[in-house]
Amino acid sequence: MKFNKWTIGLAAVGVVSLASAAKADEKLSAVQTALSSTTISGYVDTAAHWNPGTGTGAAFYGYGAAKADGFNLNVVELSIGKPLDESEWASGYKVDLWFGPDANTLATQSSGVGADLAIKQAYVALRTPVGNGIDWKIGVFDTIIGYESSSSPNNPNYTRSYGYTIEPTTHTGLLGTYRVCEEFSFSAGVANTFGPAINARAHPNPGGLGGPRAESYKTYMASVALTAPQSWGWVAGSTAYAGVINGFNVGTPAGGNGAGTQTSWYVGATLATPVTGLKVGAAFDYLDSHSSRANAGPIYPIGNDIWVVGLYASYQATEKLSLHARGELANSQNQARSFLNPGVGPAEDSQVYALTATVQYDLWQNVISRLEVRWDHGDETAFFSGRPGTTPPTTGAFTQRNALLIAANIVYKF
Question: What is the C-alpha to C-alpha distance for residues 234 and 111, in angstroms, rounded to an integer?
Answer without folding.
Answer: 50
